[in-house]
Specification:
Pfam families: Aminotran_1_2 (PF00155), GntR (PF00392). With 481 residues, this protein is α/β, with parallel strands linked by helices. The protein contains 16 helices and 15 strands. It is 40% helix and 13% strand. Bound molecules: pyridoxal-5'-phosphate (PLP). Pyridoxal-5'-phosphate binds next to helix 7.
Length: 481
C-alpha cells in the first residue's frame, strides 16, 4: 500500500522491541501472527501514534532475534489491515486502522458485544438523572448572560472549596477552577508551565493518558518505579535533584493502576522534597472519593496541605459520578489559578454551564450519592477478587483500599499475550505495559470492577479460558492476597 509520507518520528528497532515486550509464545508457534497482533495493540492503544515511521525490516528482525521472512509476513498482515503503509525508498509507517472491528487490540469504542474490561470508568449513579432535572429547572437563571466562564460558575467552585476545607486544606473559591475533567487540568498545567523537551516526573506504572498528554506536549516523561507497597521516595528525591523536572505528576490516592495510597508521613516527606527542589506538581485526585474502606474525610490530608505553593490538585466527577459529564476541577494558589484561567481561552472558552449546574447538584448531595456508590464498588471488588481466585488461581491479586481496579500479578510476563487472547474471546483488556512509561510490566494486568455483576462474571469466565489457553500458563502457587 502507498500513501503520503508521514511527518511522525521514527522508532528504532531496539526501542520497538522494548515496547513489544514478551509478545511471543514460548513454543514459538504462530510467531508472525502474534507479532502482527502485538504491534496492533501498540498502534491501537496509542503508544505508537499514527504517522510513526517503523524500523527497516532487517533492523527489526535483528532487534527481535527473528527471521526477516517472519517480519515481512507480519508487516504484510498489517498492510492488509490498513494499519501500515509502505513506499519503496521511504520505508513503512503507521496509518489509520482499517474499518474491521479489532478483537485483539484496544479501542475507545468496543463493539457492543465485546465486554469492556479496558476502562475503569463506572456507569452513572441513579441520582444523576434527578440532578439533571433539577439543573434544567435552574438553567433559566443563567440564560440572561453570555455564559462564558473561564473559571467556572461560583456555586460548584464554592462546594469544591468547602470539600477541600473539610479534607483538611482550607480553600476559598478563588483557589478553584472548573475544568472539563482532570485530564484537562493536566493539559492546562502542561501548556502553562512545560515547554518542548522539558522533563516531567511520573510514577511507573501510572495513568497512561497522563503520559500521552505529557508526550503530546512534546515533554519527556521521566519515570520513577513504584515499590510494591508504596512510593520509593529516595528515588523520587534523587530524580528531583538529578533530572530537575519542570513538573511532577502523582496519583497519591488509589493510584491508577496499583491502587496504592500514599501515607500522611510520606506526603509530608514528598512535599518537603518538592518545596526544596521548587518543582510544580500536579496531583491527580480523580479517585480520592472512592475510598472503599472508610470515609474519605478520615484519609490522609491532600498533598497540597503540605506544599500549598507547589501543588495543583486536579479533581474529577468522572469516577465519583460519571465520565460523560466531562466535569473536573483544579485547586491551586489563587494567583496560579488566575494565570491558568487567563491562559485557557486559546484552548477552550470555559466549561459547559449546564453540566456545571448538574455537578453542583451532585456535589450538594454529598454522601447521599457517594456512600452507596462506595459500598457498591466495595462489593464488586470482592466479587472480582473471588472470581479471579476461582478462574485464575495462579495470579496474585492484592485488594486495594479504594479506586476501581485490581492490579493483577500474573506470575509470568504474559500480559500482552493475554490481552490478545482475551480479545479473541470477546473481552477488551489492557496489558500491564500500557501503564509503563517506557514499556515493560508484562507480568501485570489491570482489571476494573466497574461493570455490573453479570458482565463482570462473564468477562472473568472468558479471561480464565483465555489464560488456560495460553501455551505456557504460570505454575500454580500464588494465592489471592
Ligand atoms: C488517575 C486518573 N486520572 C484521570 C482520569 C481521567 O479523568 P477525567 O475523565 O476527569 O479527565 C482517569 C480516568 O481513568 C484516571 O484514572
Amino acid at each position: 500500500m502507498t500513501s503520503s509520507l508521514p511527518a511522525g518520528s521514527r522508532i528504532s528497532g531496539p526501542r520497538l522491541a522494548a515496547f513489544l515486550g514478551s509478545w511471543r509464545r514460548p513454543d514459538g508457534r504462530g510467531a508472525a501472527v502474534d507479532l502482527a497482533a502485538a504491534l496492533r495493540v501498540l498502534f491501537l492503544d496509542g503508544r505508537l501514534p499514527v504517522g510513526t515511521r517503523l524500523p527497516a525490516e532487517r533492523e527489526l528482525a535483528e532487534a527481535l532475534g527473528v527471521s526477516r521472512t517472519m517480519i515481512t509476513s507480519a508487516m504484510d498482515a498489517l498492510r492488509e489491515a490498513g494499519m501500515v503503509a509502505s513506499r519503496r525508498g521511504a520505508g513503512s509507517w503507521i496509518t489509520v486502522p482499517g474499518k474491521e472491528p479489532d478483537r485483539t487490540g484496544w479501542s475507545l469504542h468496543p463493539p457492543s458485544e465485546i465486554i469492556d474490561m479496558a476502562h475503569a470508568s463506572p456507569f452513572a449513579p441513579p441520582e444523576l438523572a434527578a440532578a439533571v432535572d433539577r439543573a434544567r429547572l435552574r438553567l433559566p437563571e443563567l440564560l440572561n448572560s453570555h455564559g462564558y466562564q473561564s473559571f467556572g460558575l461560583p456555586e460548584p467552585r464554592e462546594l469544591i472549596a468547602r470539600r477541600y476545607t473539610e479534607r483538611g486544606l482550607p480553600t476559598t473559591p478563588d483557589q478553584v477552577m472548573i475544568t472539563n475533567g482532570s485530564q484537562h487540568a493536566l493539559t492546562l498545567a502542561l501548556r502553562l508551565h512545560v515547554g518542548p523537551g522539558q522533563r516531567v516526573l511520573v510514577d511507573n506504572p501510572t495513568y497512561p493518558t497522563a503520559v500521552d498528554g505529557i508526550r503530546a506536549a512534546h515533554a519527556l516523561p521521566v519515570a520513577v518505579a513504584l515499590d510494591p507497597d508504596g512510593w520509593d521516595l529516595d528515588s523520587v528525591e534523587a530524580t528531583l535533584r538529578q533530572a530537575a523536572p519542570r513538573l511532577a505528576y502523582f496519583v497519591v490516592d488509589f493510584q491508577n493502576p496499583t491502587g496504592l495510597r500514599m501515607s500522611a508521613p510520606d506526603r509530608e516527606r514528598l512535599a518537603h522534597a518538592l518545596r526544596r527542589s521548587r518543582t510544580l506538581t500536579l496531583v491527580d485526585e480523580t479517585l480520592v472519593e472512592l475510598d472503599l474502606e472508610g470515609d474519605p474525610l478520615d484519609g490522609p490530608p491532600p498533598l497540597s496541605a503540605f506544599a500549598e505553593d507547589w501543588v495543583i490538585a486536579a479533581g474529577s466527577a468522572s469516577k465519583a459520578y460519571w465520565g460523560g459529564l466531562r466535569m473536573g476541577w483544579l485547586r491551586a494558589p489563587a494567583e496560579l489559578v488566575h494565570r491558568l484561567g487567563e491562559s485557557r481561552p486559546s484552548m477552550d472558552l470555559g466549561s459547559p454551564v449546564f453540566e456545571q449546574l448538574v455537578l453542583a447538584e451532585l456535589l450538594a448531595e454529598g454522601d447521599d450519592v457517594l456512600a452507596p456508590r462506595r459500598r457498591e464498588f466495595a462489593r464488586r471488588r470482592e466479587l472480582l477478587v473471588d472470581l479471579l481466585a476461582q478462574h485464575c488461581p495462579e495470579w496474585t491479586v492484592k485488594r486495594p483500599s479504594g479506586g476501581l481496579n485490581l492490579w493483577c500479578d500474573l506470575g509470568k510476563p504474559l500480559s500482552t499475550q493475554l490481552a490478545m487472547a482475551v480479545g479473541r474471546h470477546g473481552v477488551q483488556a489492557v496489558p500491564g505495559s500500557r501503564f509503563a512509561a517506557h514499556g515493560g510490566l508484562e507480568q501485570w494486568m489491570r482489571l476494573p470492577y466497574t461493570l455490573p455483576d453479570d458482565q463482570l462474571t462473564e468477562a472473568v469466565l472468558r479471561i480464565g479460558a483465555a489464560w488456560r489457553g495460553l501455551a505456557d500458563p504460570a505454575p500454580p502457587g500464588h494465592g489471592i492476597a
